[in-house]
Amino acid sequence: MKLSRKRILSFTAIFFLIVLFFTVVYLKSVADYKRSVKETTFRNLDIINVPDGVYVGEYDVGFVYAKVEVTVQNGVITNIDILEHKNGRGSRAEVVVDRIIEEQKIDVDAVSGATNSSTVIKKAVENALTGEK
To answer: How does pLDDT run across 67-111, given as a tens digit for each residue?
Structure first.
C-alpha cells in the first residue's frame, strides 16, 4: 500500500495541528495554575476563636491540590493531617504544617523549593477552619 506524497503531507499537517492544539491547552493550564497560586491570599484568622473540633478542608489550583484534617482544642491547632497532596513536579511541602502548629497561624513561611505546595496546603488549612471551599 503506497501513500501519495499529498496524503503524507496531509497527515503530517493534521498531526502538527493536533500537537499544537495540545501544547496551547497545556500552556494555558500552566498559566492559569500560576495565576491561581499568585492570587491566593490568607485571612488573619484568630485561631483562639475557632471552636474545638476536627475540620476538613481542601484547595485545588490545578497542578497542586491538598486536602487536610485540622484538629483544634482550646483555641489551639493541635494536629494537621494531610489526607491528600498532589504536588505536581515541585518539591513536597508537608513540613509546612509543623510550622503552622508551631506558630499558631496559617500564613507561615513557605518551604524552600515548594512555595506553591506550601501555599496550597496553607490555604487548605484555612479553608478547613473557615468552612470555605
So the answer is: 999 999 999 999 999 999 988 666 678 899 999 999 999 999 998
pLDDT value, residue 1: 56
Q: Can you tell me the distance from the alpha carbon of 35 to that of 63, in angstroms, rounded to the nearest whole number?
A: 12
pTM, to two decimals? 0.81
| Domain ranges within the chain, ordered by starting residue | 47-130
What is the architecture of the domain spanning 47-130? Alpha-Beta Complex (3.90)
Element (H, E) at 18: helix 5-38
| Angle 28-30-31 from CA coordinates, rounded to 5° | 65
Using an 8 Å Cβ cutoff, are 80 and 68 in contact? yes
> Distance between CA 121 and CA 13 in Å, rounded?
43
- Among the listed residues 13, 8, 11, 59, the one whose alpha carbon sits nearest the alpha carbon of residue 37: 59
Q: How far is CA 125 from CA 3, 23, 48, in A?
A: 59, 34, 15
